[in-house]
Amino acid sequence: MPFEYAPAPESRAIVDLESSYGLFIDGAFVDARGGTMFKTVNPATEEVLAEVSEAGADDVDRAVAAARIAYESVWGPMSGRDRAKYLFRIARLIQERSRELAVLESMDNGKPIRESRDVDLPLVAAHFFYHAGWADKLEHAGYGPHPRPLGVAAQVIPWNFPLLMLAWKVAPALACGNTVVLKPAETTPLTALAFADICRQADLPPGVVNILTGAGETGRLLVEHPGVDKVAFTGSTEVGKAIMRSAAGTGKRLTLELGGKAANVVFDDAPIDQAVEGIVNGIFFNQGHVCCAGSRLLLQESIADEVITSLKRRLGTLRLGDPLDKNTDIGAINSSSQLARIDELVKSGEDEGAERWSAPCAIPDRGWWFPPTVFTGVTQAHRIAREEIFGPVLSVLTFRTPDEAVEKANNTPYGLSAGIWTEKGSRILWMAQRLRAGVVWANTFNRFDPASPFGGYKESGFGREGGIQGLGGYLDVEGNR
Fold first, then answer.
1. What residues act catalytically?
2. pTM recorded for the entire structure
3. Would you say residue 192 lies in a domain?
4. Best label site of 254, 272, 292, 353, fewest CB within 10 Å?
């Protein structure tokens, strides 16, 4: 008999939302000079949460100028020891306000509170703590005796992990002595604006961090601005290509973390129950809104039926609904446009002959939702096996030999991540050497740590974030110029 869950909603009262928000430039919230506003919406209810300013060209100029002055007069000349104090202070404030930030993230993004509370926020604080520790030790990081900051960093982040992606970018930039102009995604600006308030609370010098809200045009103006020394972007491959073209010949340093179509490879000696949990975490965590999601499941033929049966049984226990309910496993799709994209690709899978199975669950009347879905009978030619869906949709393929598994896993223009499930350590090492993926997980999936570098190959981008390797993207090492 299935468990009966009583509602366990987290209180919205802990979040104090303003009706409208300005831009954060030079240590203060200011109105956009164009006066244009846009709405940010709760994807679970379609409720308007707040109106947010849209930055234009004049605003980008102001923010970059403020960042340049702060870099040259305060932050760049400051000792690493003193920079570390600010980063530690920010990390502690994030911890103190973690419940508020988790609720705000779930309201603005649609992800379950259990994930924003137990995954996102602890990692956000951990990234600031980790990079604070490096701020006065950069000469020991392997980049030569006198690594220097680059200057002003333009950073553009996506909507799937709004505050975590901010931490991935802002923490190493500040630790290395750079100043920042950051643009959050149009659909999820609220935690970035809350972070701006944390910067004020931490007494961070004005201009060190600037937050510009807006859509794609704001991002384009920022990354193409001639006053920017470094561009860091996480998002779609197509936008990443456009940014790379715009940066060519400018001397700007560039880090791109783009799309993915990861293979999660399960061998016949894998512990099935453990693997099923890893498969679920690999693709249905955060509604599949994960660039490194294990969206292609490669099963060894002899266990394919057993794994699929067990997987369907497990998916039947997932709870879809209110993201603020602590029992919820599957939250809302972030936007109507993303839901339309998922619908289109799922229809293509059905039209091309793959067999669809969706977990039985009630879909709420309001908001944007999609049930956990599995496609079997998938070939490498199907769109659902080639294109990034960015939703809770899993494509299942089979293989017979390790060589075939490697060939199918690498048969993608992407190269961000992969997973291997087997009891043989030698097979894990053999596979990891041959998989063209920036991150390879063994008998787990979607495990992150600030001390571990993350990044991809091919159309998944280049450069690394996190770890010692991630520091290099924000340092001008002697001999590079």
1. 257, 291
2. 0.97
3. yes
4. 353
